[in-house]
Amino acid sequence: MSSNLNIFYINGDEVERAADRLGGKLPYGAHNVICPQWELGIYPREWIEHLNRFDEIWAPSRFVVDSLEKATTKPVFHLPLAVQIKLSSLLGRRYFGLPESAYLFLFCFDFRSYISRKNPLAAIQAFDEVCAARSREGMRLVIKLHGASSSAKSRLEFQEFITEVNKYGCIDRLIIIDDVFTDNEIKNLVRCCDCFVSLHRSEGFGRGMAEAMLLSKPVVATGYSGNLDFMDDQNSCLVRHKLVDVPESAYPHAKGQVWAEPDIDSAVSHMLKLLDDRDYGRALGQIASRHIRTYFSYRAIGLRYKRRIDEILQRRIVPEMTGTRLCVQPEVEPASMMARDETCQATRDGIAK
Fold it and tell me: Distance between CA atoms of 217 and 221, rounded to whole angstroms?
């Protein structure tokens, strides 16, 4: 451990275990940073005392910044995740057993990430309505799932999921893949499909959507939570939603929390437009890819981390903040993104732009 700066990529409930491995306490005299992950609007109260042992907190999205600031007085800094892909080999549709000529929608989820939050049945319902509206179109919904056999709970959820899926008229147009894939296979699966769908109820960041955008895929996604850091109406198909209470059995620490219920009609409208106008979808994918390459590359994000680390090591304090939130911006912020951070305008001249 450094005597100057230590950065811990752990969650609040993992702090005790990490401290035990360090002899029972965090490094004394150093500037200790924690980078927790969370997917709902309020960070769990039970974990806050552990976060408060650190000097500052880094959050991967504005959504997580807001979640943390509601729960702690520690300074919270917005430092996003980088999104960059390197394919070790190119794999085509034939490799995955996918039809060459069909328009392919793709939905991915992991049972260990909570099926109620990922919300795959909403994607199937939307696709079912698309099939009803365009019955003669050649299309498929590819569902890549993971973790179905990771526990007894997951196995039960998988069986319940399959039971529900069989109720839909589009069952013959669904392709369910539950094989364990390498990272290269996953990225190639996204590359082979035409549209990425995420009708999630909440996301801390939304890496799957960001990587699909980087691969020039139009993304149809719920317009809520962490993905709004990199998605807007200019580069994506944002689905309308309403906020609803999170059922206490649906997610850990759900009491008092809300998440999004995506509007199926809105999702269907976007999916039909992409199906009917392939040129529009390809153009949207190019805009999306350019946005991710510009603002979420290793270099763009690395520069933001470097600035904050330099400030810490030089023991400089940024005096102008909105609450405890440092407004760090990319090198050049598009107007649509700048509008989200108008409250931070006073700090821009002194920090990264």
Answer: 12
With vertex at residue 209, the alpha carbon angle to CA 78 and CA 165, rounded to the nearest 5 degrees, is 135
User: Which one, of 114, 84, 340, lies nearest residue 223 by Cα?
Assistant: 340
Structure tokens at 110: 């992991």
Contacts by residues 110-113 (CB-CB < 8 Å, ≥ 24 positions apart): 110/145, 110/146, 110/147, 111/145, 111/146, 111/147, 111/148, 111/150, 111/154, 111/157, 111/158, 112/146, 112/147, 112/150, 112/151, 112/154, 113/147
What is the C-alpha separation between 288 and 220, in angstroms, rounded? 12
Rounded to whole angstroms, the Cα distance separating 287 from 213 reads 9
Question: What confidence score (pLDDT) does residue 153 get?
Answer: 82
The residues that bridge with 140 in the sheet, in sequence order, are 104
Residue listed under structure tokens 């109720």: 167
Tokens of 294: 């510009």
Half-sphere exposure of 109 (CA within 13 A, CB side): 29
Q: 38 with 204: CB under 8 angstroms?
A: yes
Rounded to an integer, what distance in angstroms lies between the CA atom of residue 64 and that of residue 83? 17
Tokens at 177, concatenated: 């893949």
3-state secondary structure of 308: helix
The residue count of the chain comes to 353
Of the candidates 29, 31, 23, 27, which has an alpha carbon nearest to the alpha carbon of residue 5?
31
Q: How many other C-beta atoms can be found within 10 angstroms of the C-beta atom of residue 72?
A: 20
C-alpha distance from residue 191 to each of 96, 145, 185, 228 (Å): 12, 17, 10, 22
Query: φ and ψ at 141, to 5 degrees?
Result: -110, 115
pLDDT along the chain (353 residues), means of 10: 87 92 84 96 94 96 97 96 96 98 97 94 97 92 90 85 91 94 98 99 98 99 99 99 97 97 99 98 99 98 97 64 36 39 36 35
Which burial class, exposed, middle or buried, applies to 162 when counting CB atoms under 10 A from its CB (0-12, 13-18, 19+)?
Answer: exposed
Distance CA 22, CA 75 (A): 24
> How much is the pLDDT for 137?
84
In this structure, what token pair is assigned to residue 38?
């969370």
